[in-house]
Amino acid sequence: MNKILELINVSKHYRDGEDLLHVLKDINLVIHQGDRLAIMGASGSGKTTLLNIAAGLDRPSSGTIEYEGEDIYKLKDNKLSILRNQKIGFIFQSFHLLNDLNVRDNVALPLLISGKNIRVAMEEAEKTLTLVNLENKYRSLPHELSGGEKQRVAIARSVVNKPSIVFADEPTGNLDNPNASLITSLLIKLSHELNTTLVVVTHDIEIADKMDKRLTIQNGTFAD
What is the CA radius of gyration of the chain? Predict the structure, then answer.
């Protein structure tokens, strides 16, 4: 399979007074098109920081992140924003829906940002909402939805631009067990149907078991 993303000697540290807090230490990782990868780790292990760096949301202190062979952090900010909008989907644990926009508008937003006209954006948003079984919720506002429904909207928003790769940060962390199982199955189903690479950060072994590959991060580096 084609290599889609590579992390090369990636480290991240923060200054804490006179001390240097090392969050990630010389991480190396290759992700291929079609991979479904779970990254596990305890709270504070560095897994969310790793996800944010891989997705272009946070710069590493050192190292290289190559998307389809191009170092994304050498791109100008506007080029990096375009890459994130068109090629990368991201699902947040806390959904990050815009409360003043209805479901359809929330999903259409990435398309509008990328320059699609309103009619096309709304049509694509509706098609994508059908994939997550929310075709009867187009006009609902986020506060009118259950937690599981909010996460399905977030999933639809992450794939509406047909990205090559989707990152999910604890996508079931705020859900009860039945909804967590539904969301996990939905993510994997869409990954297959849309031929989208899927990288999920989780502490839930049941989710990790459903993925094709699993890595564990401890103290900022991958465990053997």
Answer: 17
User: What total of structural domains would you count in the chain?
Assistant: 1
Residue 81 has pLDDT above 70, yes or no: yes
User: What is the pTM assigned to this prediction?
Assistant: 0.93
Residue 67, token pair as written in the block:
């998307």
CATH number at residue 195: 3.40.50.300
Q: Which tokens hold the place of 21?
A: 């807090």
Q: Which domain holds residue 37?
A: 3-222
CB half-sphere exposure, 159, CA atoms < 13 A: 27
What DSSP state is assigned to residue 224? -
Q: How far is CA 79 from the centre of its chain?
A: 19
Tens digit of pLDDT for each residue in 29-43?
999 999 999 999 888
**C-alpha pair distances (Å), 98 with each of 91, 110, 122, 153, 162:** 14, 12, 16, 11, 21
